[in-house]
Amino acid sequence: MRLLFSERPGRHERHLLRRFENPLFAEAARTLTQAQLTEAQRLDHEELVAYIEELRRLVGEAVALGPHEQSDVILDLKERLDKAYETACRLADDQTPNKEAIRKLVDVIMRSVWKGAGNDTLAHQELQQEEAARQAHYALLENPLVADLLDPESLIAEDELLPVLLSTGDSDFEAALTLFDATQLEALLRQGESLAQPDSGSRLNELGAARLDRMRRGLDALRAG
Fold this sequence. Notes:
The chain is mainly alpha-helical.
């Protein structure tokens, strides 16, 4: 039977797709039925509906901000908007309009913060650094794997991380690699060495082997400082 996949899947369906017919996963994990797929799509839809409601509340709070609002109130709202942006990157369907709306709201809030900083040079430097870090973070989140890995309730189990990394797309892999420190990469490479053993029961293809080599080079770069 032909499986009915979504054009723009959410995090639950994406996780099933990463495992589907992937030889790096156990046989039970890489099989997929339409019932499993339909359930994942249902969960993704429920998350989307709940998100839209929460985003409307956030927009309402932003619109209601007074011209002399306390800074802690403004920064708390800005932090929740940043989290809402992260969530949008994990959801089903095209979230571009919602992400653009969040960016605009954050820009409005940051203009207020800049105004409050007055002529404080140090505050200006910190705000510039914060702006650069936020833009880099937003850009990184455009990679679905990164968005799913940074999810506080990530569906990618610890023992699934390496198989996912070894079989994902190039852009997702390179972006995800920036999330790990030397200790984490060492642990992943140890798993990779085990995975490459003839008696491991898995089939490490050329792409997987190349990815392990890329991770070794990344680890060497981190060690070199």
